[in-house]
Each structure stands twice: as structure tokens, then as C-alpha cells.
Design brief:
alpha/beta; 2 domains; eight-stranded parallel β-sheet; 44% helix; FMN
């Protein structure tokens, strides 16, 4: 396959994702709290991808400010990621609709009743995370316009199943809406593989942390550049009665502090001082604070250095547009290098 044919084939593979996102390439930026803010989000969109603001624990006013600031930096489409357990979710949805955000990603659990429809009625396209086929089908029936599947190789909050297995289970089963694959993708060849399996696009988080436009502290970026895949480990659940979503991060003293904090929260839960939702929110607040210390303040020893296993493929600081171009070039080169036909096979 020559280069021109390879480029045409790649365009065909992710045409559905590109049309859905309204971007040149169907490459979404993963929503990383404190990292996925106006500068990186606009850089991803300006580079041809699709940036996504990580709302995290922002108040409605803070989210409104962030959206408007991003709109000043890019005229390209971008989205907003909202955590479904946020106590002000309804108000945050209102801010997204008020500011004319075209796409909203609902993450962190099943969306509460009416959330998807409210967004759709307001003109936004809704994307939801699905960790299993049954849940993906339920979300589509509930009105989700697209599904994101994220494997355990990802950084931050993770599920128990690998990206490759999720892709094999879900891609053949969900055809009515676009499906985007995330978790552990660091090279264009892997991106191409998922597109050929039926994905409409991909989502990258870890790969963008060391972009020059990323506001992550130099210490945070250095930790990424030094790390290998095996350094990014999931947190441990201490009590099976108390389900805690694992978080993948580079191992440091912050991980130990989380285990201590988890014991304290479980003890308070056992004493009846906290109900399950309140306990989970305390844990989320812990992660938000620990992540801020690492990303913004540069405390990579006691802060949380959330990273996916693809961190070993992050070897230098690059402009966001260059990272995207590298991914595209790797995919096109992989296609162009292929031999086709039985005769080629016989020559090997």
C-alpha cells in the first residue's frame, strides 16, 4: 500500500469518529484533573484532535470560566468531562449548555436519571464510559450518543479489565453509536489496530502530559520521563466491604498515605460517621488534593502522580501538535509498510 492509499484508508477508518467529534482526527484528549485545562485542551483541538476539559471537583462558576477561556484559545470543537457523583452535577450540566459546549463526557459511574436527556435536549452530544457490554447497551438505550471504553492500563481511576479484552468484547457488540477506545495507547500502530477492530477513534491521556502546552509542573513531567510501564501501579483495596475504584499512579509515598487515609475512612464508615457516598466523596477529595500537589506544586514524592502504563513511551517533552502528528505518521507508516497478496506472503 503506497502512502496516499494509506492516508485514504486511515481517513476511512475513523471517518465516523471524525464526523461525530467535528475534528480533523478522531483523537480525544483524556480528561486529567489539573492537567486537562484551557491550555492543553485548546492545543489538542488546534492540533487537529479533540480536547476535553476535566471538570473534576470544579464549582459551576470555575467551570464556566474555564470553558470561556478555552473558547478564547480555540475555535475548534472541544468537550467537557463531568463526574457523575459531583454534588452540583445538575448545575454543571447547565453551565455546559449555557456556554454551548458541543460534547459532554459523563464519567465516574452511571449517570443519574434525566442527565443524559437534559444534555441532549440542550443540544449537546453525550459520551459515556462503559466497562462492560451490558452497561454499554444500557447507556445506548438511555440515549448516549457515543461510548468510551477504557482499559485498566490507563492512568487515574481504572476498571479491572484490559483495553484489548474490552475492545474484543464491546466493539463487535456496539454498532449503533461510535465507540472510542482508551487505556495504554501510546503509539500510532496501536491506535490503528483498534480502528481496524471497529473503533471510531481513540482517547489518549498519559501521552499528552509532557506536552509543552501542559501546565503540569516540571517535576511532574520529569517523573513521567523517568518512569517505565511497571512503575505505574494501581492502588490497593483494603476492605472488600468497601469498594474503592483503583487509581493507577507512579508508586511513591503518596500511595502509602492513601492507604492510611483509606483505613481511616473505613473506620469512620464502620462507626456510622459516614455513609457510603460520603465516604467515596472523601476519597475523591483526597485524590484531587494529592493530584494537585503533584501536578501544580511539583510534590511528586507525597502527591499523586497519576499515570497510565504507556508512561514508558513518553520520552521527551513535545508540542501537542507534534505528538498528534507522530501518532498519525506511525499509523500511516504501518499501513504503507504492509505487503498485500499471497505472493508477498510467499516472499517472507
Amino acid at each position: 500500500m503506497d502512502r496516499k492509499a494509506a492516508e485514504a484508508h486511515l481517513d476511512e477508518l475513523w471517518q465516523r469518529g471524525r464526523a461525530f467529534l467535528g475534528s480533523r482526527y478522531a483523537i480525544m484528549g483524556g480528561a486529567m484533573t489539573w492537567v486537562s485545562e484551557r491550555h492543553l485542551v485548546s492545543a489538542i483541538s488546534n492540533g487537529g484532535g479533540f480536547g476535553v476539559i476535566a471538570c473534576g471537583s470544579m464549582t459551576p462558576d470555575l467551570l464556566r470560566t474555564e470553558i470561556k477561556a478555552t473558547q478564547e484559545l480555540t475555535d475548534k470543537p472541544f468537550g467537557v468531562n463531568l463526574i457523575t457523583m459531583h454534588p452540583a452535577l445538575t448545575d454543571l450540566i447547565g453551565v455546559c449548555l449555557e456556554t454551548k459546549v458541543g460534547h459532554v463526557v459523563l464519567a465516574g459511574g452511571l449517570p443519574p436519571g434525566g442527565a443524559i436527556q437534559k444534555l441532549k435536549d440542550g443540544g449537546a452530544k453525550v459520551m459515556c464510559f462503559a466497562p462492560a457490554v451490558a452497561l454499554a447497551k444500557k447507556l445506548v438505550r438511555s440515549g448516549a450518543d457515543a461510548i468510551i471504553i477504557e482499559g485498566m492500563e490507563a492512568g487515574g481511576h481504572i476498571g479491572p479489565v484490559s483495553t484489548s479484552v474490552l475492545a474484543q468484547e464491546i466493539l463487535p457488540a456496539i454498532r449503533d453509536v461510535p465507540v472510542f477506545v482508551a487505556g495504554g495507547i501510546g503509539r500510532g500502530q496501536a491506535m490503528l489496530g483498534y480502528l481496524e477492530m471497529g473503533a471510531s477513534g481513540v482517547q489518549l491521556g498519559t501521552r499528552f502530559v509532557c506536552a509543552t502546552e501542559s501546565i503540569a509542573h516540571p517535576n511532574f513531567k520529569k517523573a513521567f520521563l523517568r518512569a517505565s510501564a511497571r512503575d505505574a501501579m494501581p492502588s490497593v483495596q483494603l476492605d472488600p466491604r468497601f469498594p474503592v475504584i483503583p487509581v493507577r499512579a507512579l508508586v511513591n509515598d503518596g500511595v502509602k498515605k492513601f492507604n492510611e487515609m483509606q483505613r481511616q475512612v473505613i473506620d469512620r464508615f464502620d462507626k456510622g460517621e459516614l455513609d457510603m457516598k460520603a465516604a467515596q466523596l472523601e476519597i475523591e477529595h483526597f485524590w484531587a488534593g494529592a493530584l494537585r500537589r503533584a501536578v501544580i506544586d511539583g510534590d511528586v514524592d507525597s502527591g499523586s502522580v497519576m499515570a497510565g502504563q504507556s508512561v514508558g513511551m513518553v520520552v521527551k517533552e513535545q508540542q501537542t501538535a507534534e505528538i498528534i502528528r507522530d501518532m498519525i505518521e506511525e499509523a500511516i507508516s504501518a499501513l504503507a509498510d504492509r505487503r498485500t497478496g499471497r505472493a508477498a506472503g510467499a516472499e517472507r
